Amino acid sequence: MTPDVRDRPGRPARSGSVTVSEDAWESTVRLISEADEIALACHISPDGDALGSMLAVGFVLRSMGKRVAASFGDRDFAVPRLLRFLPGQNMLVPPDRYPPEPDLMITFDSPSVARLGLLEGSVRRARALIVVDHHPSNDGFGTVDLIDARAAATAMLAEQLIYRLGGSLDRDIATCLYAGLVTDTGSFRHSSTTPAAHQMAARLVATGLHTDEIARELWDRSPFGYLKVLAAALDRVRLDDGLVWTYVTRVDRAAYGLPYSELEGIIDVVRRTDEADVAAVLKEDDQGAWQVSTRSKGRVDVAHVCAALGGGGHHNAAGFTSYDSPDATMAKFRALLREA
User: How confident is the model at residue 18 (pLDDT cuts 50, 70, 90)?
Assistant: First the structure.
């Protein structure tokens, strides 16, 4: 069972206005120092921040002589194509080979236990659990919580953890962290971008990163089938009282052999609509559930709305899972938007 959540070091205020405490950092370093094997996990359908932060810390843990197993809890365990350039993937193991009762487990970029998918059981049975995250909706579920909602990306906390462990940046670690930083800041376009984010980018680039190559892998590549599926999504897009939304079915993807992980960029096209404050894209996964990505231009807190539907995220970017039809899902979403 996960240890009692009361009186734990490092738990931030619900507003996220409190940074990580020194006690939490010290407890984290102690737990890691005492462990021989460490299990790392990030959220399902990992993005650059989740996978990059986890692998970056994994490099340092291995340099300390620790045995490392890293994973994410998807039934179809596969690294998204756009992240396959990240180094360190030999640390990854599928969920069925993940330690069932870790002595020490560290989660990255996951605002809740549910977002860890098939690894949820390991979380609940871990003897000690460190949560590294920057989502405001994360109330803390670890033995120690390294949560700072003011951080532009979980990668910023991962970098600090690396320094606290006595590690340093090399090109592999910097590549992983940079992928996390640029994806969660939208290439430094999002309002979460701070001077600290740019300062961190400078440290990472100084290791000799080829940022143009990283950008090409993340944003400037897609299979031809993506264009056809994007066209289908845009053909059925709807604008409804400040909400623009569309959906992509399994059938859409199957026609072009397009994996679910290729759909992430559609929301960035839909959200450009001038007439809408909020955008949503429903993506049917391989099990038939609808994974809903939402974006706000600032007036509406979509994290609050998505939390009411069992999800979470950030003020301007959040998501949830639905098992209803697209129309029924959006009816619930619109009703909550009217109350927001």
Answer: very low
Sheet holding 243-248, edge to edge: 238-240, 243-248, 278-284, 290-296, 317-322, 312-313
pLDDT in tens, 104-150: 999 999 999 999 999 999 999 999 999 999 998 888 999 999 999 99
What is the model's pLDDT at position 9? 39
Environment class of 297 (CB within 10 Å of its CB; exposed 0-12, middle 13-18, buried 19+): middle
Task: Give the C-alpha separation, 98 to 94, whole Å.
Answer: 7
* Measured torsion, CA atoms of residues 219, 221, 224, 225, in degrees rounded to the nearest 10: -50
- Give the model's confidence band at 16: pLDDT under 50 very low, under 70 low, under 90 confident, else very high: very low
Res. 12: pLDDT tops 70 = no
Burial of residue 90 (CB within 10 Å: 0-12, 13-18, 19+) is exposed
pLDDT, mean of residues 290-315: 92
Number of C-beta neighbours around residue 5 at 10 A: 13
Q: How far apart are CA 11 and CA 220, in angstroms?
A: 39
Q: Within a 13 Å sphere around the CA of 320, how many CA atoms are in the beta-carbon half?
A: 21
| Residue 241, CA distances (Å) to 15, 123, 303, 334 in order | 29, 41, 19, 9
Query: Tens digit of pLDDT for each residue in 153-180?
Result: 999 999 999 999 999 999 999 999 999 9
**Coil, strand or helix: which one is 46?**
coil
What is the token pair recorded at 217? 């892998």
Residues in the chain: 340
Q: Which of 129, 127, 123, 166 is nearest to 147 (CA)?
A: 129
Cα angle: 203, vertex 204, 209; to 5 degrees: 135
Instruction: Give the Cα separation of 282 and 306 in Å (integer).
Output: 13
**Residue 267 and residue 279 in contact, taking contact as beta carbons nearer than 8 Å:** yes
